[in-house]
Specification:
Radius of gyration: 19 Å
Helix content: 40-55%
CATH topology of the largest domain: Rossmann fold
Number of domains: 2
Largest sheet: 7 strands, mixed
């Protein structure tokens, strides 16, 4: 390879790296912020569900709301909040904390993991880990679980939901996002039953 050609490829690699870094920062810090309540008719427990919104597709938001609906059916009310909005709740106590991370470059998003690191009330708290992404989410899930373990939290369950990879290979004819939401709803019901075992 000639020196001129080598310089060209080095410049190209630098440009690709800068663009990729810029896109990574953009998706992690440009999502909309909001807080949303899912109230149980007969409230017997409370949950805080936190995620960092993806600006491209809101699978994270959908999964969080579906999980909250599952808890609602077990008489647990939920506050579904983006990271910035959840900072206002950081000193409040909940019966359950749910953390939903997006996967970027095979790792969990920075804002959510930083929120976990800064949270003062997670030692011995009951927590759930939700990991979403296109399909390659195993490493991000492990790192999220590690962050929660490092805080001394009691991890009750951990699941992954995918935008592209089939969420259930027995339901290939159904829309993958619909399947993800139904699985999250069912997971919420099961966790609600675990927290309040006397519920019908």
């Amino acid at each position: 390879m000639t020196p001129k050609r080598r310089r060209f490829f080095i410049k190209l690699a630098v440009i690709v790296l800068l663009v990729w870094t810029g896109l990574t920062i953009w998706v992690q810090y440009s999502g909309k912020e909001f807080i949303y309540e899912v109230k149980a008719e007969t409230e017997q427990g409370s949950a805080l569900i936190v995620f960092n919104p993806d600006p491209v597709y809101n699978l994270d938001e959908q999964v969080c709301k579906s999980f909250a609906t599952g808890l609602q059916e077990r008489n647990i009310s939920s506050t579904v909040a983006t990271v910035k909005s959840a900072m206002e709740q950081i000193n409040d106590d909940f019966d359950l904390y749910v953390f939903c991370v997006n996967t970027y470059n095979w790792t969990p998003d920075w804002r959510l993991t930083n929120y976990i690191k800064e949270h003062p009330n997670l030692e011995n708290a009951r927590v759930i880990a939700l990991t979403v992404g296109a399909g390659a989410t195993m490493r991000a899930q492990r790192k999220l679980e590690w962050h929660l373990s490092d805080k001394g939290a009691d991890l009750l369950g951990s699941e992954m939901y995918w935008l592209l990879k089939p969420n259930d290979e027995n339901r290939m004819k159904e829309r993958n996002v619909v399947v993800a939401n139904e699985l999250a709803l069912d997971f919420g019901k099961r966790i609600g039953q675990l927290i309040l075992p006397d519920q019908p």
